[in-house]
């Protein structure tokens, strides 16, 4: 890998990078202003431009009320084709960088009378090289540093350890995110590499909106996406979950119930009793400071936010269990990923709707029915508690309607709320 060695030789980075992100931008596409997560990567962030050049916007994020004291706080830097942009120090830690979604860029040109030139955008591929940080960032800049924000949260929590909130406020959300999203995904990243090193600043609605926006960002205009999320409304045959029973209030709901019945006819939920005592056991079983219930039952949800145990299975492929397409029945979570789905479709998506897979994949997976089976695990396999948010009727639609999308279809399917949408602009 001569290029990464050259980075070190030229003094761009002290050691060779170990992380690479490749982004492809078509004319008109960009990336929202952001600061690469402090705790995830070390100081130097290198962006190599291949194909077209682009204007990158750098904006200062004030760390106190004085801001930049009348100094400019927005610079546009043209990144020419085949150039390397090295972000380090304040440029990496205190300034956001982003690319405005435009078809053209105004760039410097010494030969023109105005000193400027309007350049049409071309397809650009950027290679962003980073070095993964082990441990926390110590810059202590309150406005931009996630490590600092986390440490503040922890010290506040220590002071008020009596807090027994089951609702997610900002403070709980940050801690929850650290323990049940970031740390878990660090451990199981090999199986879910797509989520690795993505910032999860909040696990509230704002975060769910950001997740859908992220899906939109990677779609071209007119491109379609499918979101599947677990529904609060669950039904097995004619047996409704307690939530569904209590929330059947108007004629629209009645209609909805009929469609639930129709859909669930084909379902073979694992046998389980939705009794009051079962629900009590769910409520009683909580984990960590977040005081969220641990989910132990497939068809009942007692509240929208919960922790779902996930066993990190040690690889033990069983000969002869593989179907024609190479799916291992008992390893459905991993085998589906191998087939090209971005995330497994069995089970709920993590916090936000994050499943972007082709509809055919989903149908096929459900037809296989292998989603019902738990992966084989050995007794010593670690168990992680992942944070999940389960959606109520209308919630996913309300979320998507805040964005620039056409909702093509919105429906209930086998315990999930589903939306097919099209990117408008
Ligand atoms: O495309 C680029 O040059 C920047 C990409 C970037 O900022 C990122 O992936 O975090
Ligand atoms: Fe970035």
Describe this structure in words.
Strand 8 and strand 9 (about 115-120) form a beta hairpin. The protein has two domains: about 1-130, Jelly Rolls; about 170-425, no CATH class. It is globular, with a radius of gyration of 24 Å. It has eleven helices and 19 strands. The longest helix is centred in the middle third of the chain and has 18 residues, at about 170-185. Helix 3 (about 145-160) crosses helix 4. The strands form seven sheets. Strands 1-10-3-6 form a four-stranded antiparallel β-sheet. The chain is of the alpha+beta class and about 425 residues long. The protein has helices at about 1-10, 90-95, 145-160, 170-185, 205-215, 240-245, 250-265, 275-285, 330-340, 360-370, 395-400; strands at about 20-25, 30-35, 45-50, 55-60, 75-80, 85, 95-100, 105-110, 115-120, 125-130, 225-230, 235, 240, 285, 290-295, 305-310, 385-390, 405-415, 415-425. Helices cover about 25% and strands about 25% of the residues. The relative contact order is 0.12. Bound molecules: 2-oxoglutaric acid (AKG) and fe (ii) ion.
């Amino acid at each position: 890998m001569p290029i990464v060695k050259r980075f070190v030789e030229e003094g761009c980075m002290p050691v060779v990078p170990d992380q690479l992100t490749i982004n492809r931008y078509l004319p008109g596409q960009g990336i929202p202003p952001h600061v690469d997560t402090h705790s995830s990567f070390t100081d130097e962030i290198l962006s190599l431009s291949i194909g077209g050049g682009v204007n990158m916007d750098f904006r200062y994020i004030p760390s106190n009320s004085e801001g930049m004291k009348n100094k400019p706080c927005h610079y546009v830097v043209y990144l020419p084709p085949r150039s390397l942009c090295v972000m380090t120090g304040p440029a990496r830690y205190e300034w956001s960088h982003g690319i405005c979604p435009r078809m053209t860029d105004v760039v410097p040109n010494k030969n023109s009378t105005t000193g400027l030139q309007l350049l049409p955008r071309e397809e650009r591929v950027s290679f962003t090289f980073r070095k993964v940080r082990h441990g926390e960032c110590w810059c202590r800049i309150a406005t931009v540093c996630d490590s600092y924000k986390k440490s503040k949260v922890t010290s506040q929590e220590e002071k008020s350890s009596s807090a027994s909130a089951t609702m997610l406020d900002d403070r709980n959300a940050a801690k929850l995110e650290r323990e049940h999203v970031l740390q878990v995904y660090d451990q199981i990243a090999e199986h879910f590499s797509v989520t690795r090193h993505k910032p999860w600043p909040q696990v509230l609605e704002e975060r769910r909106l950001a997740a859908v926006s992220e899906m939109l960002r990677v779609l071209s205009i007119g491109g379609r996406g499918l979101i599947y999320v677990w529904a609060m409304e669950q039904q097995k045959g004619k047996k409704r979950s307690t939530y569904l029973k209590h929330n059947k209030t108007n004629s629209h709901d009645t209609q909805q119930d009929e469609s639930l019945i129709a859909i669930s006819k084909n379902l073979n939920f694992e046998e389980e009793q939705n009794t009051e005592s079962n629900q009590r056991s769910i409520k009683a079983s909580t984990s960590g400071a977040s005081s969220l219930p641990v989910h132990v039952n497939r068809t009942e949800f007692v509240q929208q936010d919960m922790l779902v145990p996930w066993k990190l299975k040690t690889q033990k492929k069983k000969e002869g269990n593989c179907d024609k397409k190479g799916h291992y029945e008992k390893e459905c979570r991993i085998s589906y990923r191998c087939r090209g789905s971005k995330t497994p479709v069995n089970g709920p998506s993590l916090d936000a709707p994050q499943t972007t897979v082709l509809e055919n994949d989903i149908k096929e997976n459900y037809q296989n029915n292998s989603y019902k089976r738990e992966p084989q695990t050995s007794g010593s396999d670690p168990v992680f508690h992942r944070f999940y948010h389960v959606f109520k009727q209308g919630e996913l639609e309300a979320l998507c309607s805040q964005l620039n999308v056409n909702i093509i279809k919105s429906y209930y399917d086998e315990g999930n709320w589903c939306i097919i949408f099209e990117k408008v602009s």
